[in-house]
TrEMBL record:
Transmembrane region(s): 26-48, 92-111, 123-144, 171-195, 216-235, 278-298
The protein's name: ABC transporter permease
Alphabetical list of InterPro entries matching this protein: ABC_transporter_permease, MetI-like, MetI-like_sf
Membrane topology classification: Multi-pass membrane protein
Domain of life: Bacteria
Family assignment from sequence similarity: Belongs to the binding-protein-dependent transport system permease family.
Record's subcellular location: Cell membrane
Length: 313
């Protein structure tokens, strides 16, 4: 009898281990249940629903009727606003992203010093990003650059004629784009973290070799920061394609639709004209453009992004 009990005991222990492992798995699912439910209900379902609605004529006032590719045909052949907003959005990304990254890198390098109260200055420079996309900030910006705003008043002091910053199509997009450059805090923090990771020994070796400030920047700092630049470039590009609040609040797409971003086109068709099916098709085109451009940036990074382990991925 003792021999039989001895033989059965290991099997019992194994069975208990398996049962305990299953219980731990259930506990894990319980912990992620809020996120999982949020993802399924608030993200995955709307995503798939919008894909279906993009092939329909749908509005809140009537049931969806399947129209196939008609929304996409109309978009590329008949909708003049589509091509205008696509061009404006591309210009917006080209203006906003480089300006923001350059400003973020410049300020990060200034704040990468052992100065008194440096943490206070870092927090101060990050503060504008807390209000990113804020309606209040956008309204303030509009007042600053209006015809009789503070900027033109300052220009008048130095005898420069006032500029129609927001009313002239030549200047409007650049003026609104300055708001994005001003809100560089998140990118700045990431650049600052990257700068902290660069070994001081590299700069010491460069100093021994007689390199000047510019040579240190282009030969040491910039190559070592390329992984951070890659991340910031991708994230800021995605954000720029989806920008809405700031340009909508300041110009509402004007003048002459010079700041009419793609997000405004989606908003107008979906909520002003109640063309939800067509707005869904526009959203999917924007989604695919973002995916393609992100993939291109990732693919190109093997030629310019450098990692310490030598793996350019």
């Amino acid at each position: 009898m003792k021999t039989e009990e001895a033989l059965q005991q290991p099997h019992t222990i194994t069975h208990l281990h398996k049962a305990a492992k299953k219980n731990y798995q259930y506990v894990g699912f319980l912990y992620i249940a809020p996120w999982l439910l949020g993802f399924l209900i608030l993200e995955l379902y709307p995503l798939l629903a919008s894909l279906y609605y993009s092939f329909t004529d749908f509005s809140p006032l009537k049931a969806a009727s399947f129209v196939g590719l008609d929304n996409y045909k109309h978009m590329f052949t008949d909708d003049r606003d589509f091509w205008n907003s696509a061009t404006v959005t591309l210009k917006w990304v080209i203006i906003a992203v480089p300006l923001k990254l350059l400003a973020a890198l410049a300020v990060a390098m200034l704040l990468n010093r052992n100065l008194k109260h440096i943490n206070f200055y870092r927090a101060l420079y990050y503060l504008p990003s807390i209000f990113a996309g804020s309606v209040a900030v956008s309204i303030l910006w509009r007042f600053l650059f209006m015809s009789e705003g503070l900027v033109n008043q300052i220009l008048a002091v130095v005898h420069i004629d006032p500029v129609n910053w927001l009313g002239d199509p030549k200047y409007a997009l650049y003026t609104v784009g300055l708001v994005n450059m001003w809100q560089f805090g998140t990118s700045m923090v990431l650049f600052l973290a990257g700068l902290k990771q660069i070994s001081p020994e590299l700069y010491e070796a460069g100093k021994i070799d007689g390199t000047n400030v510019f040579q240190k920047f282009f030969s040491i700092t910039l190559p070592m920061l390329t992984p951070v630049i890659l991340f910031n470039l991708i994230m800021q590009t995605i954000n720029a394609f989806q920008d809405f609040t700031t340009p909508f609040t300041i110009t509402k797409g004007g003048p002459a639709k010079a700041t009419y971003l793609f997000s405004m086109l989606i908003y107008d068709n979906g909520f002003r004209f109640t063309k939800m099916g067509y707005a869904s098709a526009l959203s999917w085109v924007l989604f695919l453009v973002i995916i393609i451009l992100t993939a291109i940036v990732f693919k190109s990074s093997r030629y310019w992004a450098h990692y310490e382990d030598g793996d350019n991925r």
